[in-house]
Every structure is written in C-alpha cells, then in structure tokens.
Amino acid sequence: MWDYTDKVMDHFKNPRNVGAIENPDGVGEVGSLACGDALKLTFKLNDEKRIADAKFQTFGCASAIASSSALTEMIKGMTIDEADQVTNQHIAEFLGGLPEQKMHCSVMGREALEVAIENYRTGSTSKKILEGKVICNCFGITEDEIEHVVRDNNLTTSEQVTNYCKAGGGCGGCIPQIDTIIERIQAELKKAQAPAAPKPRTILEKIRLIEETMEREIRPTLQRDGGDIELIDVSSDLVTIAFRGMCAQCNVAEFTMRDVVQAKLREFVSADITVEEAKT
After folding, report:
1. Three-class DSSP labels, 216-257
2. What confidence tier does 81 reach under pLDDT thresholds 50, 70, 90?
3. Separation between Cα atoms, residue 148 and residue 139, nearest integer Å
4. What share of the chain in percent tops pLDDT 70?
5. Distance CA 96, CA 71 (A)
6. Tell me, what's the pLDDT at 22?
7. Cα–Cα distance for residue pair 21/1, rounded to 1 Å
8. Same domain, 184 and 237
9. What is the CATH number of the domain that holds 273?
10. Pair (230, 259) in one structural domain
C-alpha cells in the first residue's frame, strides 16, 4: 500500500472538477491507455482572461486522479502566463507530497497543462505529439521527455526517471541510455552552476593592488633589516622592482625577490605574476 497523504486520499475519493468543458479555450491530452495512464484537461477563460473553470478526465491510479483534481483547483483564477509556471513539483507539494514511485502522475498533469496552453495559444493539436528519439519503447518515452523530467526535477538516477515518467520501467533495456542522458545533463547543470570567472582587473587596479600588497606584506619585512623596495613598472603580469637600502647590496637579493616579493604578489594579486629586478 502506498503511503498517501490525507490530501491525496481526499482528492482521490472526492475528486474535484471531473468531466469536460463544452467549447473549451484550451484542451490537453496526454498519456495512453496502453501505458496505463491517460489524462484530458480542458479549461475556460473569463472576460479578464483568467481561468474560470478547469476539468479533467483520467484513466489511472489514485495518484493520477488526485494530481489531476489538484491541478484543476490550482489553476482556477490564474492567467495563462501564471498557469504556465505551474510545475509537477507544485502539484506534488499542493497534495502534501506523493510517493516517489508515483511522481509520474504529477508530471502527466504538468504535461497536459502544457499541451492545453499551447492549444489555446496556437490552436495546434490538443494531443501531445512525441518529439525526439524514442528511448523507452515499452512506454513510448522520448529522449526529449526524459531530458525534461531530469532537468525540471534534478534527477540523478535511472530509478528516479522511471518514477517520474515510467521510462525504464518495462523491460529495462533502455536504462543504459537513460544513465547516459542523466550524466550529460548533470554535467551541463554543474557547469552552469560553476562560479563565473573573475572579471579581469584593469592595469590601474592591478597596480593599486600590487602597491597595497607591497606596503602591507613585503615592505615591513625588508625595512626591519634596513632595506626597502620600490615599484618600477607593471607590464601585464611582469612586475619590475628595485631594492633600496641594505637590500640593494644584499647577497640573497635573488632569493628575496623570488621567495618573498614574487610569492606574496602571486598570493594576493595573481598567480601569473613574475617579478624581475630593474637593471641598473
């Protein structure tokens, strides 16, 4: 027995808005009896172009009936643009959650709404047309559909895909292809979420940061030993400096330039910086 919430059971036992609207403004039909779930959604707009009424007819399980009932209640009073923002997750949340294995019912509701809105906007067919390569022959699920549920719900396993759209739930022969789709999309999502590369500094900003770093991190160390440092030039990532005071005659000036000056500038300014001493 599935662990249904009280709200799911209420919408299953007492479904709202069952039936079909005469002369609807939008019609959406998805699923098929062959795969075990089918849904027809119709809606009517009022003079203010808001959804005044929505009805459904479905062949499916308790979750399919509850999801369809919930969806019709949710979109009443919405504009078309507002209804277009309703996701399958919104439907599940409205019901207080659905068993993971029944999330495909909320997806079916979302798909029916998409088709109905497209039917209203363009007058195109009220039935969902399969697009893209069919991956799951058992349930007629295309690559586009799988990509859609993976992106919208951030799915990471083929088992989740089966729960959300049934793909892979028959013979299982398409699971390797589903795994490949998931890996590709997850890689794309991670790349998109990666922090943007830092904005390149202008030469004036770089010079100011170099001077601040020298004043804070380098000069005090040199001055303790009677030395000092002067910034001579900055050309891209090449920084030219001159040692003053005791540092000018120091036998370890080369070490100081590399392991102190250059190291600090690479740490606080840019890892690409190279430091050279001005020629006398």
Report:
1. HHHHHHHHCCCEEEEEEEEECCEEEEEEEEHHHHCCCHHHHH
2. very high
3. 16
4. 94
5. 13
6. 94
7. 34
8. no
9. 3.30.300.130
10. yes
For residue 116, what are its two tokens?
Answer: 């109905």
Tally the residues of the chain: 280
Q: Of 65, 114, 74, which Cα lies nearest the Cα of 94?
A: 74
Compute the average pLDDT of residues 180-185.
93
User: Within this chain, do residues 148 and 208 fall inside the same structural domain, yes or no?
Assistant: no
Three-state DSSP state, 6: helix
54 and 124: one domain? Answer: yes
> Using one digit for the tens of pLDDT, what is the confidence trace for 96-111?
999 998 999 999 999 9
Q: In terms of DSSP H, where are the helices of 76-174?
A: 80-83, 88-94, 103-122, 143-153, 158-165
What is the average pLDDT score of the chain? 89
The radius of gyration of the chain's CA atoms, rounded to the nearest angstrom, is: 32
Q: Is 61 among the catalytic positions?
A: no
**Structural element, H or E, at residue 15:** none
Active site residue 174: no
User: Which residue of the set 105, 165, 174, 247 is catalytic?
Assistant: 105
| CATH number of the structural domain spanning residue 174 | 1.10.10.1100
As given in the structure block, the two tokens for residue 31 are: 């699923």
Residue where a domain terminates, one of 79, 108, 129: 129
Please state which of the ranges 165-174, 175-184, 221-230, 245-254 shows the lowest mean pLDDT.
245-254
Q: How many domains does the chain have?
A: 3
Residue 130, pLDDT above cutoff 70 = no
The 10 Å Cβ neighbour count of residue 255 is 10
Mean pLDDT of 69-91: 96
pLDDT value at position 196? 67
CA angle 148, 83, 64 (to 5 degrees): 65
The rounded distance, in Å, linking the Cα atoms of 129 and 104 is: 18
CATH code, domain with 1: 3.90.1010.10
Q: Is 273 left (phi over 0), alpha (psi -120 to 50) or beta?
A: beta
User: What range does the domain containing 140 cover?
Assistant: 132-194
